[in-house]
Write a structure and sequence with these properties.
alpha/beta, Rossmann fold, Quinone Oxidoreductase, Chain A, domain 1, 7-stranded parallel β-sheet, 7-stranded mixed β-sheet, 18 helices, 26 strands, about 30% helix
């Protein structure tokens, strides 16, 4: 039977990760909120208020464990909440802090007397505390604070959640007090430097007086006692390195995440701009600029992706030159890049299927992936494959979807069918050859001398150099992936047997049925997910022939226009 766990603070810094990791562990999750909305479909949102214990009756009914965040400066009112929880739950995991302030100490005492199994988490400094510097860094790339030499061992919120999930779902944690830190002691000034490295811009620490910091914090509405507590704690941290514990690794089996990894995941929060490859006018490759551009923000139904890579599609040279402006008009300046692989950095309103840290791939119909960050509709994305590097996965969306739809939607390729793939040495061709073979077809592929060996290695039964030998006829399906003229198109289509199919992604082929065998690929994340599963199962190879920094995009466009590129080429920001 699926265990059901109540999560309080489910939208908070740690609670949202607890919620997601519990779902991944197969637990049933019930999230407590005053206004339960916006949770993933698998989460049961329930209305309740920790300050009104009677409102929790429905929330605690049938739960096995409770993740407890008590967001108040006093433990007053906690005892009846614990009594209500203990009617059903046998276990509680409480998020305390390493400071163990008076109200936290009292909360820990009440929890130990509740009659439930209990575990206390005492995280040291949250890595997320560095977000308080975001405004200064975005505006001036400087942090003006006192106590730059205050040392702490920042812990990633996902690691806190991982320990909480083990305590909520596993044995051996009853009565445990887990002190949680990151793997290394860092001063505040060192943290600012690491953030600068993550955003690719130096960040300077500028020491200010405690008095100046106090005035600024009070002006922002901080309670005086909180301000004095923070400054006092920072002063006490200047005496040497902060303690480091191995608790995260001991409990979860994985090493604690570094502050550097946290900074990379949250780099968008510290940046007002990003680097992007854009065109401001139609024309030659020299018009591609690698420049600073505004950092986008995700709107409703969108996610912000930290780009691992995009891939080069030859059709983008036509877009850049203006040849496609009648069928694919874009607003200038325009950021190139239709393929994306990367990590979700933030989600917009209404997004429930993705969370920060998720690895994704997708085809972006409006482009934008030739940048450090891009926003994308959440519903066009698929989980990235785990069997290949995330950057390499950028080679999949456009080429993989095009091959899939050509074969299975338009040519009905299946077991026992003979299919001729013209232009198999290109990026789409590599996927088409493999997918056709996986479907049980006999594959005849055309390829020039430069790509013949690669096409053969992908499973083609016969590789034909169309410039030197005739192509066989009587095939069940002809799939054209190459730019060819009208006469060549007619000759190619004639190779299909009566009743066969001729399909092209470039010029229309006259179909044996009399219709035009031409199609334009559409976005389909369900198909993309099926392709990913084949990659992870080892049944589909992603053949990346070149990898370059994004700064080389213009030179890649020049090479493509002279016919000196083949296969899938990825570009990394």
């Amino acid at each position: 039977m699926q265990r059901r766990i109540l999560v309080t603070g489910a939208t908070g810094t740690v609670g949202r990760h607890v919620t997601r990791q519990l779902l991944e562990a197969g637990a049933g999750v019930r999230a407590l909120s005053r206004e339960p909305a916006g949770f993933p479909p698998a989460v049961e949102g329930v209305r309740g208020d920790l300050t009104v214990p009677d409102s929790l009756r429905a929330a605690v009914e049938g739960v096995e464990a409770v993740f407890l965040v008590w967001p108040f400066a006093s433990a007053e009112g906690l005892e009846p909440v614990l009594a209500m929880a203990a009617r059903h739950a046998r276990r509680v995991v409480y998020l305390s802090s390493a400071a163990v302030r008076d109200h936290e100490r009292e909360a820990e005492r009440l929890i130990a007397r509740s009659g439930m199994e209990w575990t206390v988490l005492r995280p040291h400094a949250f890595a997320a505390n560095a977000l308080r510097w975001a405004g200064q860094i975005r505006a001036e790339r400087v942090v003006r604070e006192p106590y730059g030499q205050a040392a702490m061992s920042p812990v990633h919120e996902r690691d806190i959640a991982a320990v909480a999930v083990r305590a909520l779902t596993g044995a051996g944690h009853d009565g445990a007090v887990h002190e949680l830190t990151g793997p290394r002691s860092l001063t505040q000034a060192e943290q600012a430097r690491v953030i600068g490295e993550a955003i690719g811009r130096p960040v300077r620490w500028e020491e200010t007086s405690p008095q100046e910091a106090r005035r600024r914090m009070l002006s922002l509405g901080w309670p005086p006692e909180a301000v004095d507590g923070v400054l006092r704690a920072q002063a006490e941290m200047t005496g040497g390195p902060a303690p480091v514990t191995a608790t995260v690794e001991r409990v979860t089996g994985s090493a604690a995440r570094t502050f550097r990894s946290w900074a990379a995941e949250h780099a968008h929060a510290f940046r007002a701009t990003m680097r992007a490859a854009r065109i401001h006018a139609y024309g030659g490759p020299e018009l591609i600029r690698h420049e600073e551009a505004p950092l986008p923000s995700p709107g409703p139904g969108e996610v912000l992706i930290r780009v691992a890579a995009t891939s080069f599609n030859p059709s983008e040279t036509a877009l850049r030159s203006g040849m496609l402006r009648a069928v694919l008009p874009v607003a200038l300046p325009y950021t190139l890049g239709w393929d994306v692989s990367g990590t979700v950095a933030a989600v917009g309103p209404g997004v429930t299927g993705w969370a920060p840290g998720d690895r994704v791939i997708g085809r972006l119909d409006r482009g934008g992936a030739a940048a450090e960050y891009v926003t994308a509709p959440a519903d066009v994305l698929a989980a990235a494959p785990s069997a290949i590097p995330l950057a390499d996965a950028a080679a999949i969306p456009v080429a993989g979807l095009t091959a899939w739809q050509a074969l299975f939607e338009h040519a009905q390729v299946g077991a026992g069918r003979r299919v001729l793939i013209n232009g198999a040495g290109g990026g789409v061709g590599g996927f088409a050859v493999q997918l056709a073979k996986h479907a049980g077809a006999t594959v005849i592929a055309t390829a020039g001398p430069r790509s013949a060996a690669a096409v053969r290695s992908l499973g083609a039964d016969q590789v034909v150099d169309h410039t030197a030998e005739p192509l066989p006829g009587g095939v069940d399906a002809v799939i054209n992936l190459a730019p060819i003229g009208p006469d060549a198109a007619a000759s190619l289509a004639a190779l299909a047997r009566p009743g066969g199919v001729a399909v092209s992604i470039t010029v229309p082929l006259p179909s044996p049925s009399g219709s035009s065998g031409h199609f334009v690929t559409r976005n389909d994340p369900a198909q993309l997910s099926r392709i990913v599963r084949l990659v992870d199962a080892g049944e589909l190879t992603v053949d990346v022939v070149e990898s370059h920094p994004l700064t080389e995009l213009a030179s890649l466009h020049r090479r493509s226009e002279t016919g000196r590129t083949r296969g899938k080429i990825i570009l990394t920001p």
